[in-house]
## 1
Amino acid sequence: MSAQLATLFSTRPEHLIPDFLKHLSRYGEPHTWRYHCHEPPPREDIQVLLRDFVVPEGLIPRVGLAKCPICSPKLPKYIKGHLLWSPITGQLYAVGHCCGFNYFNDGVLSEGLRQEKARGIRKAHEDFLLANWEKVAEFTAFADALLPRAREHDRVVRLLIASLSQKRANELYRSAGDGGYLTVVRRQAGAEEARGGLQGVRERFGDRPLQGHLILHKPRSAKLAEARLVNPATVLRFVDWRTLDNAFEWLCDQPDIDLKRLSDILGDAESGSAQVCAEMNALADFLVPENLQLINAWSRQQDTLQAEIRVFRPMPNKLTVWRGRHAAKPIVLHPNVDQPAPEPPALIREETPPG
Ligand SMILES: [Zn+2]
C-alpha cells in the first residue's frame, strides 16, 4: 500500500464504499477490488465497513461465486459477504458471510456493550446532577460569602508559620502526631537505661492534646484556602441554572465528558469547602490561650539546642510569636477568627457515585 493510501486508510475509510459497490455491480468480484487485501484479516479490532453486500445474481453465471480470503482464497465460495476494515493494519477485507459473520457478530456485540456502558455512565451523571442542580448556585454563593475570611485565614496561617519558622512549625506538628498529644524527648545519662551511650526517651507532654495543629502542616502541594474555594466556583459560575428545567435542558445538550467534568467539579467544590471550614475551625482552636500556653510550656521542656518558641495572645486581635530572643512582627487577628466556620453545602448522593 502506498504511503498516500496508508494515510487515507488511517481513518475509517467510509469514502471508499461507493467505489467498492461500483466495482461489485460492474464485475461481480469483490476479491478483485483494488483495495481488497488478500490476506486473512487480524482477529482483533475489526470494524464492519459495509454489511451484507451481495454479488449481483446476473453476473454469477459468468464470474461465479466470490473467493473468501479466510476460508477459501483460491476457490469460489460466497454470494453474501461483508467489507471489513482493520484500524491496526489499515487494510480492507471483502470476506464471505461464512467467516465475516464471526467478526461482524463480535463487533456488533462489543460495540453494543460499549454504548450500553456509556449510556449507563451518562445516566448516572445525569441523575447525580439533577439531584444536585441547586448545589451549583449554592457552592458559588458559599464561596463568595466565605472568600474574605478564607483570604484572612491564609494570611494568618502564612504569618504564623513564618514567625515560628517552617522548621519549628513542622516540629510542633510532628510532635503532636496522630493522637494530638505533644511529646518531648529527654536525654538519659543513666547507665542502665541508656545502653550504648546517651539516648533519648520520648514522653507524652501535658495533660491535654494540642488543638488545631493541623494548620501547621502545609505540604508544598496544598492549595491555599482561597484557591480551594475560588477554583471550583469559577467554573460553576458558567453553569447558569435558574430552574430545574434549565438544568434539564443543559444536561440534554452536553456531551458525556462535560457531564463527568461537572460532576467532578461539584465534588471538588464539596471537598474544598469542607476542608477550608475544617481548617478555619482548627485555627480558632489553635489560638485559644490555653493551647498557646501548652505550646510554650512544651517548648521550655524541650531538651534540644533549638531556640525556645513562645506564642502569646495579649489581646483578642493580636498574636505575638517569639523565637528565642527574637520577636516576630505581631499578627493582627480579625474578630471572626474565633467564630465557628459556617456549615458547607453537601452533595446528595443517592447511589454509587458515577464512574
Ligand atoms: Zn469464508
Note: The first helix runs from residue 3 to 8.
## 2
Amino acid sequence: MSNTLPPLPYAYDALVPYISEEIMTLHHTKHHQTYVNALNAAEASYAKASTPKERIALQAALKFNGGGHINHSLFGRSLAPSAAVNKGTGGVLKDGPLKSAIEKYFGTLENLQKQFNATTAAIQGSGWGWLGVNPSTKALEITTTANQDPLLSHAPVIGVDVWERAFYLQYKNVKADYLTAIWNVINFEEAEARYLEAVGGSKL
Ligand SMILES: [Fe+2]
C-alpha cells in the first residue's frame, strides 16, 4: 500500500534549456514527493476508517494526491533529453505506429502540436493536457483534466502538466512558450509504447 517516489530516468538538468534544473528538482523532490506522502497518509487513514462517513471524508484527498502521484509518475517518463541540443532522443517522432496514427488523426505532428497547445492553454486554472487513445474507437484524441484528476476517459499517451509550478520559474506567465518548448523534450518512444499497449487493448 505504501507508494514511493519513482526516480526520474534522467538528471535534473537533462531537459535544459527547455525545462530548467530548478523546476525539475523542485517538481520531483518537493511537489511529487508531497503527493506521495499525502497519498500514503490518506490510504493509511482509509484503512483505519470504520464507517462509511469516515471513508467518504477521505475521497477528496485520495483523488487529489493519488491523481497527483499517477500524473507526475507518467509525466516524468513522458519527457526525455532533447535531440535538438544533442542530449538524447526527446522530441523525435520516428516512423512507426504512433507517427502513422498521428498522421491519420491530425494530418501532421505540427498540426497535433498546434491543436494540443491551443486546447491545453485554454485550461482555466490548473490541470493537465493529454493525448490519449479513446478506448471505444481506438482513435487518438486531445483532452484535458482539471486539477490533479487522472485521465480516466482515455488511455494516456502523452501528458503535459500545466500547473504554473511546472513552468513559472522559467516561463513566468507565458504558458504558450512553455507549451511550445516542451515538444522538444517529449519522449515519443515512451508515448509509442503506451499507444501500442492502448490499441492492443491489453490494459486500458
Ligand atoms: Fe506538477
Note: The mean pLDDT is 96.
## 3
Amino acid sequence: MSAATRPDPETLVLAAVALTALNPIEQAPRGTDADSDSPDHDETLDIRLDAEALRIRAEATPKRELTMLEARSISAWFGDHKVLDRVSLTMEAGKITALIGPSGCGKSTFLRILNRMHEMIPSAALAGEVLLDGEDIYAAKRRLTDARRDIGMVFQKPNPFPGMSIYENVVSGLKLTGVRSGRDAKDSLVEECLIKAGLWKEVRDRLRQPGGGLSGGQQQRLCIARSLAVRPKVLLMDEPCSALDPTSTRVIEETMLELAHEVTIVIVTHNMQQAQRVSDNCAFFLASQGTPGGIVEHGDTGVMFDSPTDSRTFDYVNGRFG
Ligand SMILES: Nc1ncnc2c1ncn2[C@@H]1O[C@H](COP(=O)(O)OP(=O)(O)OP(=O)(O)O)[C@@H](O)[C@H]1O
Ligand SMILES: [Mg+2]
C-alpha cells in the first residue's frame, strides 16, 4: 500500500471495531453462544474474522523489530547428572522453531534455560550463553525480570490463576513485571491479547468470571493471552497442546501461526504432524544410552522431515523410535 493511500491509525482502529461489529456472532444475545451451537456455525470464519480485526489493529500499532534468540554451547546439570552437552541453536526472528526428540533428552530443560527458569531449580547448573538479539540474558547486568518479560513461557498444563477473573488473569503479568497502566489501556490490552490468543469471541461476555471455569483449551489460550500482555519478544511453549482435544489444538496452532508475525516462537512437541504444520525450523534432540542430550540435526522443517542427513533423524520423524 502506498503512503498516499494508507489510512491513519485512528481510521484503522475504527475499521477494526466496525469489522468486529459486522461479525454475526456479535448479534447473538449476551450470555449465550447460539451461533456456536448452530450446526451451520463456521468456527474457521470466526478465527478469520478475529484475525482480520487483529491485522487491522496491528497495522495501527507501531511496528517493532522481530527478535532472534541464540543458544551457544549450552550444557546443563542436575547435581552431578549432566543432561545437556554443548547445545547450540539459532532460533530465527519471527519464525517458529520446533524442538523434537524422545522423552528425557532435555528439551524442557533447554527451554527453561532460554528464559532463566532452570536456575530456580535447586541443584541445577548450566554453562553457555543465551543471546537475545546479541545480548546474553545471563550477563551480570541483566535482570531476571527482564528475561522473564522478554521471553514468555506457556506450559504443557494450562495454569491460569483459577480464582482470578479472566480479565485479571490477562493483566496479572503486568504487576509481576512492574508495568502500571490505566483502566482504558488495560481494557484495550485485554481485548487485544484475547483476540490474539483466539479466545476473545468465547469470553468477551464473561470477562469477570473465574479463569478456572474455562475448558482446558480455553485455559491454555488464556495463558497465551496472559503471556502476550507483557509484550514478549519470544514465546516458549512446552507441549502446549498435549492435554487438548483436536479442535483446541487446531485453534492454538492457528494462533501460533498468527503470532509468529510479531513474536519469535519456540515450541516443544511430540506430535510430528504438529511440528510439520506449524514450524519453519526444527531441531532434533537425542540423549543416547545415558549420555547427555544434544542436537543431532536442525534446519528447515521440510528438509528435516523429507530428506534429513542423519539416519537417526529419519528414524525418529518416521516413528521408528521414541
Ligand atoms: N528437576 C529435576 N531434577 C533432576 N533431574 C531432572 C529434573 N528435571 C529433569 N531432570 C532430568 O533431566 C533430563 C532431561 O529432562 P527433560 O525434562 O528436560 O526432558 P524432555 O526432553 O523435556 O522429556 P519429555 O519429552 O518427557 O518432557 C532427564 O534425565 C530428567 O530426568
Ligand atoms: Mg519435557
Note: The CA atoms of residues 34 and 40 lie 11 Å apart.
